[in-house]
């Protein structure tokens, strides 16, 4: 028995003979003479170690093995023929896999816009999405386990040479506070958004729920600087690593939180979002990826992000 692997030419010859049930007609169909066709089929049978055809002087018929093998060979040939257009689609970024991580804040404003646009233009790309804090995303990128991430700026300086960064959108911080506290602080509230600004000075004694600094140093420092600019020292009551958890702790009356304005779309019973009376600091969200490894699929996603970066601005609440 031969240990060689059949080639596609032999498989195409096999299908032609099986469909024509005649070597002469199959040879004419393949634009070749009969002897080399017969030799190729014999070579295929030797390679596979089975007889594919029962031959007589007047006819040729598939054996039971040949009949069972025919649909499998047709599938193999169809898959082989699909390789070229698939390869071209991959090269154009129209197909493939994109592993994308994102911070929880992006899930309430930026991420849905990007995914909707990218999905409409590249429906054959399979997205692998994972929520993670910025520090985890940087580690995953450096290790090559994800292709890109939506992070809160800045990118750690130690990775600046290795990673590329594209700022996308900036949005102000607002106060997430228990509804009872908001009512005592005054203001006209509609559902979970209150248009009346609230001053940090009026909330100085209320515990603050915040991200741990080692997980989001830029975000954490922005919040601390906001208190410092108001001449206040925050009283940190709780720390949490997910925005959903932070807002849930506010809902439970554990304190207040300064969160990106887009997070007001995360509704929790007993939580009201209000703008700051002071000049509100902004949080920047951007896309980060390994500068030296840009696949066609990632390049297509970056193109979408660049378009949004020039036009997307998180809308202020009415």
TrEMBL record:
Stored SUPFAM superfamilies: Periplasmic binding protein-like II, Winged helix' DNA-binding domain
Highest taxon listed in the record's lineage: Bacteria
Residue ranges constituting the HTH lysR-type domain according to the UniProt record: 6-63
Keywords carried by this UniProt record: DNA-binding, Transcription, Transcription regulation
InterPro entries given in the database record: LysR_HTH_N, LysR_subst-bd, WH-like_DNA-bd_sf, WH_DNA-bd_sf
Claim: Transcription is one of the keywords in the record: yes
Protein name: LysR family transcriptional regulator
Protein source organism: Paraburkholderia silviterrae
Lineage: Bacteria, Pseudomonadati, Pseudomonadota, Betaproteobacteria, Burkholderiales
């Amino acid at each position: 028995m031969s240990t060689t692997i059949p080639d596609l030419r032999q498989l195409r010859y096999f299908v032609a003979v099986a469909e024509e049930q005649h070597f002469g007609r199959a040879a004419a169909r393949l634009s070749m003479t009969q002897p080399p066709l017969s030799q190729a089929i014999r070579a295929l049978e030797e390679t596979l170690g089975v007889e594919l055809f029962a031959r007589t002087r007047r006819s040729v018929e598939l054996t039971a093995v040949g009949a069972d093998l025919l649909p499998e060979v047709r599938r193999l040939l169809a898959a082989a023929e699909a390789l070229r257009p698939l390869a071209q689609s991959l090269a154009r970024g129209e197909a493939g896999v994109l592993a994308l991580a994102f911070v929880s804040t992006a899930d309430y404003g930026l991420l849905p816009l990007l995914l909707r646009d990218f999905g409409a233009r590249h429906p054959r790309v399979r997205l692998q999405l994972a929520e993670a804090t910025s520090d985890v995303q940087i580690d995953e990128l450096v290790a090559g386990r994800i292709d890109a991430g939506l992070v809160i700026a800045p990118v750690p300086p130690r990775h600046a040479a290795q990673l590329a960064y594209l700022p996308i959108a900036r949005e102000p911080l607002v106060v997430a506070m228990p509804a009872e506290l908001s009512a005592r602080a005054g203001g006209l509230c509609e559902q979970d958004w209150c248009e009346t600004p609230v001053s940090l000075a009026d909330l100085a004694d209320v515990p603050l729920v915040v991200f741990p600094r080692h997980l989001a140093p830029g975000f954490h420092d922005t919040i601390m600087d906001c208190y410092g600019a108001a001449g206040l020292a925050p009283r940190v009551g709780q720390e949490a690593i997910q925005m959903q958890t932070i807002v849930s702790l506010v809902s439970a009356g554990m304190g207040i939180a300064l969160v990106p304005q887009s997070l007001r779309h995360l509704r929790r019973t007993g939580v009201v979002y209000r703008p700051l009376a002071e000049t509100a600091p902004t949080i920047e969200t951007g896309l980060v990826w390994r500068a030296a490894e840009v696949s066609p699929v990632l390049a297509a996603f970056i193109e979408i992000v660049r378009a949004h970066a020039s036009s997307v601005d998180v809308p202020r609440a009415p």
